[in-house]
């Protein structure tokens, strides 16, 4: 669906948590945003608490003091609005390439969701500017580096707050780079003039980390089911057995994800003529290699890791992260809820799981290319081996990606560089964990797509033996974009076509038209 169409769809932000589907609609599809009446009321109530302290001679962090190690500085009443503007300008210190539009929209939406709880003390009119920017398709330019994942995603969120002030750079709905003031004026959005505490309330959140986690969880749900499709096709085309995927064998080790993956493999391989062809007394193979036999165990462990990550994401979506925070009973209290450790850990866990699933996929692909292990297929699946190289270098591409995925699996959350003159002496690096996970999910999709491309070629080479209906449907969907076996062709476009089909979910959809919904 186009952005133009989606902008007529509006997500209402209330005082409760957003659903992942709502975040995806705004982040990826350009849906508009509005605040509920309940949210406006909650923000107005929270604002009254802050305003009651605004003129207080007693210092209150974020309202009448400096920030971080400068919290010991008491700020006079007549300079407290300037304090908020200065905070945003100084913290908008990002560097490097621009962060993707969907990530920026997700983090703005999630910050807006926290504002809507009334726990930050930010005014309703300030929150409305964020809603208006999202609806108008105005995306602040946020840079790759600047967040340590503690005190929230400070620099990324500060760039968004800066744009809401009418300063800095944005991309408009068409993607053009424009000064923020110009883009706001063109869409009739009035820049916000920050009041007490509002600068801090706009930047002290885990919204960037959380937005990227929600997006990654959604993509991994598709990628892991697609990995099952690829594994099933490989088991079939390598003359493996599906006996090891039997439900009673899997139940001996009752991990939920393992059971789901094994059930998928059984459904995908149901009725395979290729597999039936070697269920005879002449077959002397006792058991398959681990990359075939243990696919449910590895894919299942990744599913269980994803399920845990989704639980953590759900809890964070229900959170109101700020410091200080306006409590339900009307106090303004300092806290440490901005620390990104819960998110950083699961972002790193997922990167580990992604690397391992991809590693197993690459090993299955490699088996197709080796005449000592591919059970009668030509070397490298080449049309005329020696003259043609077949899929030899496709496996090199996989190996290069898998090697990078292993590097990306090194945890970011175990690192910490103290900041703010040792006031912030332990940080989560959750933003970095999220950034590398995004790259890892892309890598997994590419590795699985190459396995699918190779396995489909092998299925064709097993003719006249007939594959299962589901794997045949996947092969046929690939064949609509990529020709079957033959002399060597320019391989890169064929790989990209397979990647596109895997990433979009079309491979999975082709299989599910036969099997019904997979787990």
UniProtKB/TrEMBL annotation:
Location in the cell: Cytoplasm
Major subcellular location class: cytoplasm
Gene3D superfamilies: Fumarase/aspartase (Central domain), Fumarase/aspartase (N-terminal domain)
Record bears the keyword Lyase: yes
Lineage top rank: taxon: Bacteria
PROSITE patterns tied to this protein: PAL_HISTIDASE
Keywords of this entry: Histidine metabolism, Lyase
Catalysis: reaction(s): L-histidine = trans-urocanate + NH4(+)
CDD domains, per database record: PAL-HAL
One Pfam family of this chain: Lyase_aromatic
Entry keyword annotation includes Lyase: yes
Enzyme class: lyase
Metabolic or biological pathway: Amino-acid degradation; L-histidine degradation into L-glutamate; N-formimidoyl-L-glutamate from L-histidine: step 1/3
Enzyme Commission number, as recorded: 4.3.1.3
InterPro entries: Aromatic_Lyase, Fumarase/histidase_N, HutH, L-Aspartase-like, Phe/His_NH3-lyase_AS
Family the UniProt entry places it in: Belongs to the PAL/histidase family.
Name listed for the protein in its UniProt record: Histidine ammonia-lyase
Organism: Pseudonocardia adelaidensis
